[in-house]
Amino acid sequence: MNLFKMRRGLPDLDDLALDAIAPSTTVNPSREYLMPSVERPQQVFVRGQGSWLWDSADRAYLDFTQGRGANSLGHSPSALVSAIAEQAQALINPGFALHNRGMLSLAARLCQLTGSDQAYLLNTGTEACEAAIKLARKWGQRHRAGASRIIVASNACHGRSLATISASDSSTLTNRFEPQLPGFSHVPFNDLAALHAAVDARTVAIMLEPIQSEAGVIPATANYLKGVERLCRELGILLIFDEVQTGLGRCGQLLVEQSCDVRADIVVLGKGLGGEYRWPLYSPGALPVVSTWVS
Ligand SMILES: Cc1ncc(COP(=O)(O)O)c(C=O)c1O
After folding, report:
1. What are phi and psi of 181, to 5 degrees?
2. pLDDT for 110-166, tens place per residue?
3. The pTM is what?
4. For the domain with range 13-85, which CATH number is right: 3.90.1140.10, 3.90.1150.10, 2.60.120.260, 3.40.50.720?
5. What pLDDT is attached to residue 255?
6. Residue 234 in 3-state DSSP?
7. Residue 243's pLDDT band (cuts 50, 70, 90)
8. Do the domains 96-290 and 13-85 match in fold?
9. Of 58, 32, 34, 33, whose CA–CA distance to 45 is shortest?
10. DSSP state, 271?
């Protein structure tokens, strides 16, 4: 399939090098009203195609970050543009409390592909990780005498809400907005003995990224993941995989757990699933997919 019907030819790399020296002259809207929550370059971007972005001075940039890790299909693929336009003409936002066809077929497809029972659709990876935490705690209330603690790994990243900051340990977090929420124990990654030692009667789940992202692309070994799965089964606690970065075929198979022949009870997906488009009909930013264990 031709994803990109290019509206114009791609820029020559020599021209780009010359361009980089020339200052941008176009007047852009003021930035003063936008809270500077992250550091951004001065340029204002107006369009994208495939791997390229153009700023308001019509200078082209090869985009190595692609929606900060969210895009899997590049900028404005024509198949996506048509699908969004078609859906917008039919129905934009019936509300989350009503069924819509997109929501039902996406949930069914995800469950069939991942061998899960049910999917919960949310807007971001952060919300999806929070939902997984809530789901595990609900399961703990029902099946483990109210156990609620979740063991997570050092240098993990599970999002930027207050709960997921507490679950995360990434060094890119310069402010942790203390006090943190209780209920998380951090153990070294890829260390099964440390994980085992941290489990007690209050533990309800272990939550891990199969490949740590913000920590610097650090894979869990297959032996470690298999050991963690066995530990969870033996001790009767839940295994949650945060596949927000790694899922949706980004590491070969649909999920990393499939390539390691390991099965989590809750899988959290995001990024590549919805490309982080805040599109209300599908709410596709992310979702935890829940298997039979959790009822
Ligand atoms: C492994 C992992 N989980 C969760 C998140 C949070 O996802 P989002 O940025 O969609 O809120 C991230 C974000 O980078 C992530 O890398």
Report:
1. -75, 140
2. 889 988 888 888 888 899 999 999 999 999 999 999 999 999 999 999 999 999 999
3. 0.88
4. 3.90.1150.10
5. 94
6. helix
7. very high
8. no
9. 58
10. G
Judge: domain 96-290, CATH 1.10.10.10. no
Rounded CA separation 207/223 (Å) = 16
Q: Closest Cα to atom 10, ligand 1: which residue?
A: 125
Phi-psi region of 251 (alpha: psi -120 to 50; beta: other; left: phi over 0): alpha
Q: Is 104 exposed, middle or buried (0-12, 13-18, 19+ CB in 10 A)?
A: exposed
Please choose from 166, 171, 213, 279 the residue to mutate so as to test ligand 1's pocket, defined by most ligand atoms within 8 A of CB.
Answer: 213
Distance 245 CA to ligand 1 centre (A): 7
Nearest to 163 by CA among 123, 127, 135, 209: 127
Domain-wise residue ranges, the chain: 13-85, 96-290
Mean of the per-residue pLDDT values of the chain: 87
Model confidence pLDDT, tens digit, residues 156-193: 999 999 999 999 997 778 889 999 999 999 999 999 99
Ligand 1 pocket check: which of 244, 245, 251, 276 to mutate, most ligand atoms within 8 Å of Cβ? 244
CA of 58 to the centre of ligand 1 (A): 31
- Write out the two tokens for 161: 């809400």
Residues with CB under 6 A from ligand 1: 124-126, 129, 157-159, 209, 213, 242, 244-245, 270, 276, 286
